[in-house]
Design brief:
The chain has 271 residues and is mainly α. It folds into two domains: 66 residues, no CATH class; 150 residues, no CATH class. Helices cover 77% and strands 0% of the residues.
Amino acid sequence: MPAPTTVLAIALEIALVVCGVVLLWRYVFSAAARAPPRATSLAAWDTPMNDFLLFLWIVICGGLVLPVVAQQTARALALAPQTKLLLVNAGFQGGMLAGVAVYGLCFNRSRPREPFGFAASLLPGIATFLVSLPLVVVVGLVWTGLLKLCGLPIEPQDAVAFFKKAESPALLATMIVLAALVAPVTEELIFRAGIFRYARTRLPRWAALLLPAVLFGALHAHLASFAPLVVLGIVFSLAYERTGRIGTAIVAHALFNSYSVLRIFIDPTAT
């Protein structure tokens, strides 16, 4: 018989997926949703390719340099393995976010301002999160089945083991903040407000949606979650394009990560 926490996790997921299916029908498949689309409020990023490549280069440098600094610091201080892992992850996310900030402050000559508007982004962000769930669940089941058919191992994510075996409340709280706040802001500014916004006026629509989503999935370096994350990235790009607010994608991403963390705590079988 399943543990009560497992039953709770399943019930929660079913309830959220049902809500997502309802919203998916309303905003995607209903007659009103299939009407001619309204003009997007997302302004194009009219910048030369060399400026865009500079943006990517600064972000990549930040994501490579700070983790090395964090690793060397952890080694010099003889920190515990979990603390070392946390510092490296924080350096990776913080380094990329610092790269976005450096580019925005020092080199941004043509990029439109990114409207955030938390209040205006909250409800669309919640709706985007709910719409993404049934898609992610279905794609995840199909993808897992394909991996098993190919004889490939389904390994749990490193983050799952970290949350389950956190050595102190401080480490756990820091990891939650990284997952629920820092990562959504960093990754949405790079993949949606950066790569997707640049590509959407220069590549075919399918390619503009797929390219940042594939890079987003690959960034997590976890084969079992790759296809679901690609789908998630596409949904976030569509929501960003539809609302014209990067805050919509950030809120949806933060809710998705928070939900994933919550499942780890209430469902011992979560992977």
